[in-house]
Design brief:
Length: 229
């Protein structure tokens, strides 16, 4: 039985026909893995969607599994790079760092929804060594926010963190990350008219409230009031 590719996919992937084959294959894989799942999607599905023969895949990837590993790895690398850039753009204050981190993380999950869904849902289909590689990247991301939380707790800024024990900090970090990760599953600027930047700002402020720190906008108003006295 030949699996039919939806008209929506065919229209969306028409643009990939003028791109280099490897990029076209990756774009098709992202779309199909997100909608159908890695296990259900066949090599034939992917190659038909990007207008290439089935054998062309093996000029760039040794298997469907390597294709999955490649696109998830690229997503994780981009995420780590964007988070590091966001933190480099603010000072050392934990409040500013947490806001910048969560905002960048959420923006990634609004602007690259398909990539985020595949990376977060399908990575466990990888073989053990590749899972370990992706798990290490995910752990580095978690460690970034945990260090911010620990510094904020030590400074007395994040008052909702009752203790500095790593398990407590880890739970709070995972709660914040999971809230932002889920944005990829429901965000739609086309249907709802929401701006990615507004959603990201809201999540950053919610993260600050979670740890007992006032949102940046509220703190700025308070500082202005004090200065005016």
């Amino acid at each position: 039985m030949v699996r039919r590719i939806s008209r929506r996919t065919a229209v969306r992937l028409t643009e990939t026909r003028d791109t280099p084959p490897a990029e076209a294959i990756e774009a098709a894989a992202f779309d199909l893995f997100a909608r159908q799942g890695f296990q259900v999607t066949t090599v034939r599905d992917v190659m038909h969607a990007c207008g290439l023969t089935q054998g062309a895949l093996y000029n760039h990837f040794s298997s469907k599994e390597e294709l999955l590993a490649t696109i998830i790895r690229s997503t994780q690398v981009a995420l780590e790079r964007e988070l590091a850039a966001a933190l480099a753009g603010v000072g050392d204050e934990p409040v500013s760092q947490l806001h910048a981190f969560v905002r960048a993380y959420t923006l990634r999950h609004t602007r690259k929804r398909v990539e985020a869904v595949v990376a977060n849902r399908e990575w466990e289909w990888l073989d053990a060594p590749r899972r370990q590689e992706i798990r290490a990247s995910r752990r580095r991301v978690r460690e970034m926010i945990m260090r911010i939380l620990e510094r904020g707790h030590a400074a007395g800024t994040f008052r909702a963190l009752r203790r500095k024990e790593r398990d407590d900090v880890k739970i709070v970090a995972m709660a914040i990350l999971n809230q932002c990760t889920d944005v990829a599953y429901w965000f739609s600027s086309t249907h709802d008219g929401w701006r990615a930047e507004d959603v990201a700002d809201l999540h950053a402020d919610m993260a600050l409230r979670t740890v007992g720190a006032p949102p940046l906008a509220a703190r700025a108003r308070a500082n202005d009031a004090v200065a005016a006295e």
